[in-house]
Design goal:
The complex is a heterodimer of chains A (about 80) and B (about 850). With about 80 residues, chain A is mainly alpha-helical. Chain A has a domain at about 40-75. Chain A is built from 3 helices and 2 strands. The longest helix of chain A is centred in the middle third of the chain and has 28 residues, at about 25-50. Chain B is built from 38 helices and 4 strands. A two-stranded antiparallel sheet of chain B has the order 3-4. Classes of the chains: A mainly alpha (about 80), B mainly alpha (about 850). Strand 2 of chain A pairs parallel with strand 1 of chain B.
């Protein structure tokens, strides 16, 4: 998107947590997933901020939203 | 027709009957009873009547006719009622109907002669009469007519006639009954009346009662209106009981229960609140208690909640109190030193008096130092230090008796033990030796120590006074210098074991102290050189300690630095100690030690390591002497030096400190060395560690492990989630200063942190930029910590899920399809939103290429399509 996250970082992160190997293409998919998640997170946060009549997304908005979203994105 | 006449009422009929017939027919009674019992269906009655008609045709006929007439009358009356009253009428009619048939049945069932029937009717009539009282009156006159008519009819006609008229009469009766029904609404009242009647008991005649009873009974069930009604099965008591139940029991119960419940609730609440408050007040109880109290207090006022939360908070704070404690310890040290100072002088005075008058000042200082040290140590490990102190005091006492020099030593030791683990006894001894010539210095030291203690930051002050005290104690001469030194030394010397533990603590203190001390101390004394040195050392030690608090190695350093400081103070221990030691030997123990420390400091400048190493040896003598302090006469530098080697480990630390000291000594370098010393100290420490015996390092590690455990955790947490919740921030604060020290830490140390830092994950810039892009609106900066944490959690879950999917597919590698499945489950990918679309939508080209085969020229597809 705007910035590219180093694939290596992603991969290392997954590797660190998963303890199993990860394929090449899967990295890109994971990135996609992350993007999607962030996207939804941002949308929700934006909505919440609007509810609060604030043009700026604040941390409290995000926090309030995150729990619900994390639960939803559980898979 | 009379039958049709509304006026025809059962009453009238009955009257007619009564008038006409006087006989009583049992059969009719049974028949009537049966009829009565029955719901009063006309059909039945008619049938029965029909059967009985054979026997008592005339009577039954009459009865039937009367019933019919009753009904009709009631019905008619009801009909006559204005339409507005229809409802009531209808109700009443219904009610009337029941009573009508009841009445009719009564009429039939009357065992008694029609006369009784009539009576009953008459009795009931008025009660069951229409709402309008006139009705019964009308009914009555009607009845006779009806009766007469019926009678006449019946007599004239046969059954068939009667049947017909019966029907009509029944209709009439029904109407009348309906009319009577109007009374239904009254029935409620009547019921009450009935109850009263019932309660009042049956009377023989039960005229009124009978009527009322009949009415009620008719309502409830078929019952003879006459007194027989009482005999009816209808439970008389039922309504009463019912009423009672309704009226008394239920409401009473409810009321009571509610009230009681409320009261009970309140009582409980009060009780619980009291209990919980108590528990809350304790605060010290674990969260579990608070939770329990919470559970109890659920219904309690909110007042309790804050307590709980407070408790929770306090409990939580307890978790973090430890790191704060380090700081607080510093602060407290100051207080302690201040507090200890007055105490110490007493102690010192005691000892001094016992041992030497000259060294009163020293003693005082020593006491102060010791106190300070003690306070510091106490904070760190009160038990240990106290114990040590005690032992030291004992030792001190012993030493005192032994020699004057021993006294300061013991004091030093005591202080050392108290403050930081092992104070270098030999050092202290050396310092003790010095004090003789340095009474003034002692005074200066005292002042310096005080000054140093005061102005310095909490940490430093704490360390300083400790060191100062330590120094002061051992040597009146070297009080000034020795104090900080001794403190340091003490810290380093007394116990290898303690050192390890106290090291991290003392190191911090010392490191902090030396810094400030350096500056301040540098001024006052002729032996400022020594003092600043000691101070520097102390500072260095403090710094080291502070830094070490986070790091295991720090503990080591402190360990070493402490020893170094002490060495410098009393004996040149460690690297710098060498010169100190040498200096000590020639000069008086105390002063020599200090000076040597200073000299050694200079040497240290040049080659701190080497010097330290060298100094260690002579210092070791001292050091070695310090441990056996109470036992040995460590006045002699040789002894100390002899001890020093044994205390190499300890000295290593103090040596580093010492480097600071000597530097401190040199006014020129007094300021400079602080930093480089501190900077070096870690390095030195490292080296020292190398030099230091493994045991010490191990021990120090172990010890350091203990204390900074939480700090390390915090550090890790910091590195992991630097932007986490405020709770983490708490940890941040203490870690911040430590972090600074950590900077100087060896790479190895950093390696640990770096390893843990990896948890952070995605680069912040990336995450934030993406978020901003998606948000389309301004995003505040404080969002990112939260974002990071969220991402981290998300990643964890992501990895777990992917792992599971892969394992489910009996694969060991996470593949694209795993991620695809995950996305599908997450709802990102649906039937209407295939993956590829998403890929196209979001991913940059590079990633996309990986995922979607792209055909390029030459029939070359990228990526190579997998073949399954």
């Amino acid at each position: 998107m705007l910035k590219r996250v180093p694939m290596s970082k992603l991969k290392s992160l997954i590797k660190k947590k998963a303890h199993i190997r990860i394929g090449t293409a899967a990295d890109a998919m994971v990135e996609l997933n992350v993007l999607l998640f962030l996207h939804s997170l941002a949308e929700e946060a934006r909505t919440k901020a609007f509810e609060e009549k604030s043009a700026t997304i604040k941390a409290c908005h995000v926090k309030a939203v995150c729990k619900k979203l994390l639960k939803q994105a559980r898979g | 027709m009379d039958y049709v006449n509304e006026d025809v009422s059962a009453r009238i009929l009955l009257k007619h009957v009564l008038n006409t017939e006087h006989s009583v027919s049992p059969e009719t009674n049974s028949a009537s009873q049966a009829a009565l019992h029955s719901s009063g269906s006309k059909i039945r009655r008619s049938a029965r009547l029909g059967c009985k008609v054979v026997v008592l045709t005339p009577q039954e006929a009459i009865k039937q006719s009367m019933k019919k007439k009753l009904r009709e009358s009631t019905y008619r009356t009801s009909l006559q009622m204005p339409p507005t009253k229809r409802r009531t009428i209808s109700e009443g009619v219904r009610k009337m109907n029941s009573p009508a048939p009841a009445t009719t049945s009564i009429l039939c069932d009357d065992d008694i002669t029609p006369r009784h029937l009539l009576r009953g009717i008459l009795q009931t009539e008025p009660s069951t009469s229409l709402l309008i009282q006139d009705r019964p009156v009308r009914m009555e006159p009607e009845q006779p007519y009806a009766n007469s008519s019926l009678l006449s009819n019946s007599s004239s006609t046969g059954l068939s006639e009667l049947d017909l008229p019966d029907m009509t009469t029944t209709v009439n009766l029904g109407s009348t009954a309906k009319g009577l029904r109007r009374k239904r609404p009254r029935r409620s009242l009547n019921v009450n009346a009935f109850n009263r009647l019932l309660e009042s008991g049956e009377d023989g005649g039960g005229g009124g009662e009978g009527s009322s009873a009949t009415e009620d009974l008719s309502l409830l069930s078929s019952a003879s209106p006459s007194s027989v009604t009482f005999s009816l099965k209808t439970p008389f008591v039922d309504p009463q009981t019912e009423k009672r139940a309704f009226k008394r029991n239920a409401p009473n119960r409810k009321k009571i229960t509610i009230e009681e419940f409320d009261e009970a609730l309140q009582n409980q609440q009060v009780a619980m609140s009291g209990d919980t408050e108590l528990s809350d007040r304790e605060d010290q109880r674990g969260l579990s208690e608070t939770v329990q109290s919470q559970g109890l207090m659920l219904g309690l006022s909110d007042i309790v909640d804050p307590d709980i939360t407070f408790d929770i908070i306090t409990n939580k704070t307890a978790l973090y109190a430890q790191p704060v404690e380090t700081k607080s310890t510093f602060t407290t040290k100051d207080k302690d030193t201040i507090a200890a100072a007055p105490i110490k002088p007493e102690m010192g005075g005691m000892k001094d008096d016992e041992v030497r008058g000259q060294k009163d000042d020293e003693m005082e200082l020593d006491d102060k130092d010791g106190e300070a040290l003690m306070t510091d140590a106490g904070q760190r490990e009160d038990s240990v230090r106290q114990e040590d102190f005690k032992s030291q005091t004992e030792e001190v006492a012993e030493s005192q008796t032994e020699e004057e020099g021993a006294d300061p030593q013991t004091e030093e030791e005591v202080a050392d033990l108290q403050t930081e683990e092992d104070v270098v006894d030999p050092q202290t001894e050396e310092e003790v030796a010095d004090p003789q010539t340095e009474d003034e210095e002692v005074a200066d030291n005292q002042t310096e120590g005080e000054e140093v203690a005061d102005p310095q930051t909490e940490e430093e002050e704490v360390a300083d006074p400790q060191t100062e005290e330590v120094v002061a104690d051992p040597q009146t001469e070297e009080e000034v210098v020795a104090d900080p030194q001794t403190e340091e030394e003490e810290v380093a010397d007394p116990h290898t074991e303690e050192e390890e533990v106290a090291d991290p603590h003392t190191e911090e203190e010392e490191v902090a102290d030396p810094h400030t001390e350096e500056e301040e101390v540098a001024d006052p004394q002729t032996e400022e050189v020594a003092d600043p040195q000691t101070e520097e050392e102390e500072v260095a030690e403090w710094k080291l300690r502070s830094s070490a608090s986070n790091e295991v190695r720090f503990s080591r350093r402190d360990y070493q630095s402490e020893g170094g400081v002490r060495v410098t103070g009393g004996i040149a221990e460690g690297r710098g100690y060498k010169s100190l030691g040498t200096g000590l030997h020639p000069s008086e123990t105390g002063s020599a030690g200090r000076r040597s420390g200073g000299d050694s400091a200079d040497d240290w400048h040049s080659s701190p390591e080497v010097v330290a190493s060298k100094s260690i040896h002579p210092q070791t003598e001292y050091i070695g002497s310090t441990p056996p302090f109470p036992q040995e006469d460590e006045m002699e530098g040789s002894i100390r030096t002899g001890n020093s080697p044994s205390n190499e480990e300890e000295n290593a630390v103090p040596s580093l400190e010492m480097t600071g000291e000597p530097e401190n000594k040199a006014p020129e370098s007094s300021y400079l060395p602080t930093h480089p010393i501190t900077a070096r100290s870690p390095a030195d420490h490292e080296e020292d560690w190398e030099d230091v015996e493994e045991e010490d390092s191990n021990q120090s590690e172990e010890l350091s492990m203990k204390t900074p455990a939480f700090v390390r955790e915090k550090r890790n947490a910091l590195s992991v989630d630097p932007q986490n919740t405020p709770t983490v921030f708490k940890g941040l604060q203490p870690s911040v200063p430590v972090g600074a020290a950590a900077m100087r830490k060896p790479a190895a140390v950093r390696g640990k942190t770096s390893g843990t830092k990896k948890d952070l994950g995605l680069p912040k810039s990336y995450v934030t930029s993406v978020f901003k892009h998606f948000a389309k609106t301004k995003v505040s900066s404080d969002v990112y910590p939260v974002l990071k944490e969220i991402m981290e959690r998300y990643f964890d879950r992501l990895a777990d899920d992917l792992e599971v999917y892969a394992a489910h597919a009996n694969r060991k590698t996470i593949e694209v399809e795993d991620v695809e499945l995950l996305m599908r489950r997450q709802g990102f990918v649906t039937d209407s939103m295939p993956v590829n679309v998403l890929i196209e939508k979001y991913l940059p080209m590079e990633s996309r290429k990986l995922l979607i085969p792209v055909a390029t020229s030459g029939n070359y597809v990228i990526p190579k399509p997998r073949r399954k």
